[in-house]
Amino acid sequence: MGEAASMLPAAQGDRAPAPAVDAEGLVKTYRSRAGTVEAVRGVDLRVESGEIFGFLGPNGAGKSTTVRMLTTLLSISAGTARVAGLDVAREPDAVRRRIGVALQEAGLDGRQTGRELLVLQGRLFDLSAHDASSRAEELLELVELTDAADRRIKSYSGGMKRRLDLASALVHEPEVLFLDEPTTGLDPASRVTVWDEVRRINERGTTVFLTTQYLEEADQLCDRLAIIDGGRIVREGTPPQLKTELRERLGLARDATLDDVFLDATGRARTHVAGEVQEVKA
Amino acid sequence: MTQAWVLARRALREGIRTPEAIVPTLFIPLFFLVVNVGQAARIFPGSSTAFLHGQGYGAFQLPSSMLLAASFGSAALFLVEEIEGGYFDKLRATPVHRSSIVIGRLVAEGVKALLIASVIVLLGLAFGIRIASGVPGFVLLILLTAGWAIVYAGFMQVIALKTRSAAATNSAGLVFFPLLFLTPNFVPRNLLTRPMEIAATFNPVTYVMEALRSLILQDARWETIGLGYLVVAVAAAIMLAVSVRVIRNYD
């Protein structure tokens, strides 16, 4: 983790359940015409069962690549990852049975109806036709899409697609749910609806691994979070821990925000241009 | 196989809901049939051309149109769309067997080809073409065409998975034209010039075309028909193996 300010809870002894996600030295390299690109450079992550874990980082930091490795969609160049107690590289099918995945840009088949998509998803997780149909009905109610269930997905709004994508990731009641930027591009009302869904899902016992670019989202939802930059984890801890650490380290007179933590961790800074904002006096 | 069938049904629904992708598959081969017959029918009159076995030139040309229709499948382009839209990753994140993802689309493509080939043959019958091998021959004709559709869709799926590009997949589909024209497309193989005859002998499409043609023009000639089916079976096995390998290594 390098200089990352690790604030993981102390080891909880032998009785602690297996972590939902446990990655060590995760590396992803790509070969391109320009040479070898290291998208992820030795990521260590531990997400406890039952947590909502936030994974933050600027564009191109390695968030999605890490998630794609953890969800079996990308091969791992080096390092190990265990999800729901199973080795991702050695037992990918067993991992797939225990995880739910909703990736960036809701990956849905616009020519199917919402109901058809959920039933199909259930069938791919070996539910019988009857069980897949019942489960689809339950999920449509959960994400409040019953009225639109028999409409083609291409006619859905962005928010409806996200909710359906979320529902499709829950068909088989996964232990760990991976959400890759689930609210990107949504209006504020739809975003809050997705947050409510995420909380509800977590209250039912599902561990949530959430990547986001929205710091407010991470602050609202996450028990713990990690910030990745340049393919490396640069901060990890609970939001209050990270804010306190920054305030004390920089000797700030005010409380730090998660924005401050993010900017400090990623080496970016707010730029104030003189005269950009003018004070108006009555 | 349940998962493959579930995915095949989805692909069939997709086809039914996208009629604009099916219409050209039917229209363009019929257009070529009309044009080719219009250009050459007087050169090869049925009454005095031995290789037509008493039928018109349309009966000789029908297999070309059927193979053309079978090679116009849209499975690979739908697959690229799915890759670009993210649904392909959604499927890959399920424990579905990788081969089921490939087979599902190929089965759907085979079913679509059965229907399209049936329509083309029925239209041919309406215009006086006869199937010399009778109803069993009709069934064999349709099945062999569907088999070729599966082979070609398999090839296109491999291109789609490797390139992930609609433009590249579309361009690769054009390879069928040299394959189709390096065959005894207009005359039997023994009437081709020597270089063309050699090229046609090495072209697997030749044997499929000759099998189809023998079913239309002559009574069952099992050696020719068997060779056509063997070519399709071997090519289908190769395409399936390559497709599954490519999807397993997809990163």
Task: Give an account of the 3D structure.
With 282 residues, chain A is an alpha/beta fold. Chain A has one domain: P-loop containing nucleotide triphosphate hydrolases (Rossmann fold, 3-Layer(aba) Sandwich). Chain A has nine helices and eleven strands. Chain A starts with a strand and ends in a 17-residue tail after the last helix. With 251 residues, chain B is mostly helical. Chain B is 76% helix and 0% strand. In chain B, helix 4 packs parallel to helix 7. Chain B starts with a helix and ends with a helix. Chains A and B meet through helix 2 and helix 3 of A and helix 1 and helix 5 of B.
Walk me through the topology.
The complex is a heterodimer of chains A (282) and B (251).
Chain A lengths: L4 E2 L14 E12 L2 E13 L4 E5 L6 H8 L7 E6 L2 E2 L4 H7 E4 L11 H11 L4 H14 L15 H12 L6 E5 L7 H16 L3 E6 L2 H7 L2 E6 L2 E6 L1 H12 L7 H8 L17
Helix pairs in contact in A: 3-4, 3-5, 5-6, 8-9
Chain B lengths: L1 H15 L2 H22 L16 H14 L4 H11 L1 H6 L5 H29 L7 H30 L2 H8 L2 H6 L12 H9 L1 H14 L4 H27 L3
Helix pairs in contact in B: 1-6, 2-3, 3-6, 3-7, 3-11, 4-7, 6-7, 6-12, 7-8, 7-11, 7-12, 11-12
